[in-house]
Amino acid sequence: MTGLSIFRIGGEAAGEKAPAGALRLAPVRFLPRGMSVAERKKRNLFDVWLPLLAPSKELLSSATPGKFDDKSWARFAARYAKEFAASAEKREALKLVALLARDGKVSLGCYCADEIAATAPCSWRWSKKRRRKSNAFARC
């Protein structure tokens, strides 16, 4: 099976883990707080940290944790999409993720317990749309 999935960074429950054999990407702005590099490596939380795909510090600071309703989530997602539209580096990194997912398993991680409040689903949806437009990759 190929494609994209979402996992919770540090999640222990079966539904929170990345599929076996998946490349685990962490498109998060910050590394886990209070955890040493040695502890992070020991716990094997993810394979690659990709802060380039995370929302900006400014956008993250504008969000109120635990206070996401449909309207505020839509506003956050729209601002996140604008950040991608304004950055060739972000768009190209997302293309790479989409291409990797086309030929193998890729899992995007987040810290959120609630998928609706996670930023990984935004990246996942955008990657999924890009994968469907296979002609978009013909010139890569």
Can you offer a commentary on this structure?
The protein is an alpha/beta fold and 140 residues long. Helix content is 41%, strand content 13%. It has five helices and four strands; from the N terminus they run ββαβαααβα. It starts with a strand and ends in an 8-residue tail after the last helix.
Keywords:
single chain; 140 residues; alpha/beta; four-stranded parallel beta sheet; 5 helices; 4 strands; 13% strand
Strand content: 5-15%
Which percent range fits the helix content? Answer: 40-55%
Distance between the termini: 24 Å
Counted beta strands: 4
**Cα-atom Rg, whole angstroms?**
15 Å
Main β-sheet, spatial strand arrangement:
1-4-2-3
Shape summary: globular
SS-derived structural category: alpha/beta
> What is the ordering of alpha helices and beta strands?
EEHEHHHEH
Number of helices: 5
Main sheet characteristics = 4 strands, parallel
| Overall mean pLDDT | 78
Note poorly predicted spans.
130-140
Task: Please write out the topology.
Blueprint: E1 3-8, E2 23-26, H1 37-43, E3 48-49, H2 57-62, H3 70-85, H4 88-103, E4 105-110, H5 120-132
Parallel strand pairs: 1-4, 2-3, 2-4
Helix pairs in contact: 4-5
Question: What's the quick description here?
Answer:
Strand 2, helix 1 (37-43) and strand 3 (48-49) form a beta-alpha-beta unit.
